[in-house]
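STRUCTURE:
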């Protein structure tokens, strides 16, 4: 370490910028605090090539860093402020952990000599972050900062990716160092490693013996940009492809007829899918139990006779819940071609017939969705299918299929967007779709910031048009995101799917009552099936005015389906040609009565749920069984509580 003098030009904080320059990372996200100023000050030097993106809440900062990381494949970097900083970040840290996103979180601890005396804001920061990180560490001495930082970035990028947390006493960041004291670089561990050949051959033999295989595609498929390889396997085996619930990326192209959408969110519906198959290929499948209610008495999600093959780059996700006949530890993109070669030499019987059947089902599905769209256009309020169809048309008309990113947190209405948006092989990539596997609300609006900032992406798309569809309840978690969007002049299209309530929780309540209302030992029923605490109607929130207050963003309220297309066209043109965002408050439900009567509750529920009951299935391969399962679940309900919509994911 150099002695402090008037001509010092480098401090220990500059080790951070050595690494960011080496990796080509250009942003640090955060909420300013006194402890962080030495690091933030480093962004003031043009030579460092790093900009500080100021956010108004740490969960926004980490969410924005996640969006940046998704686009670049490099670690998103943020600086948080002592105990409140990491505590405020936990929601999206959990999302990043579950979605295996590379992050490096730098937390500026209180002065090292004072920490033991329990000063203001100080705590055991490492213990707060440890559960949802690959590695969490507090720096012991300024001398170890370069070693710790190199390890942190190496670990964040090593397969499987994930968040890393480093606590640095803030006085350690200001220690003078020599101009020649620099971090050499960050070790890169290649993600492109193939699985064991003998196990791959074993998997191919299992496919050859299968009469009815199914493929479940998880996030490691999309992260590896492995659409073509998985499409080839689906064609060779005649296997339908379902996606993990709350897929973080588009894990299979939706213009391939094997695509069946995401797994459903109930135990019975999941069971009904897998009971039709004798073999499941679980590829990159980490989020394996994305449901709210599970009973051991109702049996496992996978039937006992279902043979399972696993392939992913994370040993924890291989057979973590059920026994796997073949377990391949390897990169999805580099291992699938080897598996495909062996399967091609000895394909399973009936593949051609299954493929033809799925082509026919795909055509029938398209007809049903078109009829559903036409029905929606005649409704009084807006169904999400109308929004999704208008977005598709606007994107394709402007030639933006490889220049847009759709950020999804319209949790109650995923199916229409997943079906209609151009998330296929005509120019899109897996990262053209952004969601998270964790499900902690408040991920999408912050992510839109980080996504829009990045113009060079790991999979070759350009986020010229960033669209964020978000439920009204989710939008209220971090509306201050709009300040950062305005501050950084980031034009983003925000679509609020506004039904004046926490509708996913309304459906969750139905699930709970269905499972436990008549169960022995429980017999639990709420005071009301329409509780006021799940509604957002007194007063009704003006989202456009809220956005304007945070920075003069433009927008409009849209109340009828006939006005959706024009509003979408206007909004898309605005964000493409201006430096401000645009907010569309889409009214997808009738205004909720302030004091509902029993009769008004039934009418309102029927109105809100109508578009679910009419909505065609995405999973046409299993639709007969799923329809029967939903009828069974509906019949089990009492007191007119309705039933859980078929296309809704896990409820939280």
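SEQUENCE:
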């Amino acid at each position: 370490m150099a002695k402090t003098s008037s001509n010092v030009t480098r401090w220990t904080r500059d080790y951070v910028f050595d690494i960011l320059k080496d990796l080509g990372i250009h942003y640090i996200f955060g909420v300013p605090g006194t402890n962080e100023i030495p690091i933030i000050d480093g962004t003031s030097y043009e030579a460092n090539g790093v900009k500080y993106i100021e956010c108004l809440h740490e969960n926004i900062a980490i969410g924005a860093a996640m969006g940046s990381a998704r686009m670049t494949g490099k670690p998103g970097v943020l600086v948080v402020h002592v105990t409140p900083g990491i505590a405020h970040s936990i929601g999206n840290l959990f999302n990043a952990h579950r979605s295996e996103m590379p992050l490096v979180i730098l937390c500026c601890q209180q002065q090292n000599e004072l920490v033991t005396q329990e000063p203001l804001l100080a705590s055991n920061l490492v213990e707060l972050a440890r559960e949802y990180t690959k590695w969490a560490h507090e720096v012991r001495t300024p001398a170890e900062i370069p070693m710790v930082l190199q390890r942190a970035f190496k670990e964040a990028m090593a397969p499987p990716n994930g968040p890393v947390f480093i606590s640095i006493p803030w006085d350690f960041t200001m220690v003078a160092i020599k101009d020649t004291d620099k971090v050499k670089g960050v070790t890169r561990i290649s993600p492109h490693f193939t699985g064991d050949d003998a196990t791959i051959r074993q998997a191919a033999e299992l496919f050859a013996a299968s009469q009815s295989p199914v493929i479940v595609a998880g996030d490691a498929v999309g992260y590896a940009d492995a659409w073509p390889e998985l499409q080839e396997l689906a064609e060779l085996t005649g296997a339908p492809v379902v996606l993990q619930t709350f897929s973080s990326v588009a894990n299979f192209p939706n213009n391939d007829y094997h695509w069946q959408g995401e797994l459903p969110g109930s135990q019975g519906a999941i069971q009904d899918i897998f009971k039709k198959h004798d073999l499941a290929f679980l590829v990159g499948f980490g989020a394996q139990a994305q449901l709210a209610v599970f009973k051991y008495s109702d049996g496992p999600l996978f039937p006992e006779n279902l043979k399972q093959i696993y392939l992913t780059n994370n040993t924890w996700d291989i057979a973590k819940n059920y026994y796997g006949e073949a377990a391949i530890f390897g990169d999805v993109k580099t291992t699938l071609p080897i598996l495909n070669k062996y399967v091609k030499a000895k394909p399973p019987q009936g593949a051609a017939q299954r493929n033809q059947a799925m082509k026919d089902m795909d055509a029938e599905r398209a007809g049903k969705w078109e009829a559903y769209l036409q029905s929606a256009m005649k409704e009084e309020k807006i169904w999400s299918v109308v929004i999704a169809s208008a977005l598709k048309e606007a994107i394709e008309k402007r030639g933006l299929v490889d220049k847009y990113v759709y950020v999804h947190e319209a949790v109650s209405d995923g199916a229409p967007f997943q079906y209609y948006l151009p998330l296929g092989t005509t120019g899109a990539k897996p990262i053209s779709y952004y969601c998270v596997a964790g499900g902690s609300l408040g991920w999408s609006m912050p992510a839109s910031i980080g996504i829009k900032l990045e113009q060079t992406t790991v999979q070759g798309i350009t986020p010229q048009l960033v669209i964020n569809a978000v439920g009204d309840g989710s939008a209220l978690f971090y509306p201050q995101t709009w300040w950062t969007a305005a501050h950084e002049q980031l034009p983003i299209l925000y679509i609020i799917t506004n039904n004046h309530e926490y509708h996913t929780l309304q459906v969750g309540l139905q699930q709970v009552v269905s499972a436990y209302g008549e169960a022995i030992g429980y017999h639990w029923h709420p005071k009301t099936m329409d509780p006021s605490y799940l509604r957002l109607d007194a007063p009704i929130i003006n989202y456009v005015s809220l956005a304007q207050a945070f920075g003069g963003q433009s927008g409009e309220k849209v109340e009828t389906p006939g006005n959706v297309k024009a509003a979408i066209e206007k909004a898309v043109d605005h964000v493409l040609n201006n430096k401000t965002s645009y907010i569309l408050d889409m009214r997808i439900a009738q205004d909720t009565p302030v004091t509902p009567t029993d009769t008004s509750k039934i009418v309102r529920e029927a109105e809100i749920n109508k578009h679910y009951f009419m909505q065609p299935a995405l999973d046409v391969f299993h639709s007969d069984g799923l329809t029967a399962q939903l009828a069974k679940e509906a019949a089990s309900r009492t007191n007119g509580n309705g039933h859980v919509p078929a296309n809704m994911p896990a409820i939280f």
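REMARK: The radius of gyration is 25 Å.
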